[in-house]
Amino acid sequence: MVQALPGTCPSCGSRLMIIRLDCRNCGTVLEGEFTPPEFSVLAPEQLDLLRLFLLTEGNTRKVQAVLGLSYPTVKKRLRELLVTLGYERDQSAALSRREVLERLGRGEITVEEAERLLLGEE
Questions:
Q1: Other CB atoms closer than 10 Å to residue 107's CB: what's the count?
Q2: Which of 1, 16, 76, 122, CA to CA, is 20 to 30 A from 24?
Q3: What does the pLDDT average to over 73-101?
Q4: What is the pTM of this model?
Q5: What is the span of the domain harbouring residue 34?
Q6: Containing H/E element for 33?
């Protein structure tokens, strides 16, 4: 039975590396490190949303109508899709930047400490 290609490790959540490909027809074997398809990290419902978004040519109103969802919900799901693909940072990261700046403003940390936190060094 052929299964869908998992995009992430079920144990730790890291991206998987494909190391072997077999041809069922002629028996050819390719071994090495192959990058999985970009969209393999998407959950099935995210992949469905991406397909629908493409089929509607990016028209969020049509996506709303097909899914029966509100505009904010569709936008939220599209943003989550972008975060999963690594095109946009998670909103929780944005909040942590805000918190760093607030702590700096209150004098709880130095400029150097804020810089390290914002650069992800701490």
A1: 7
A2: 16
A3: 80
A4: 0.60
A5: 1-41
A6: strand 29-34
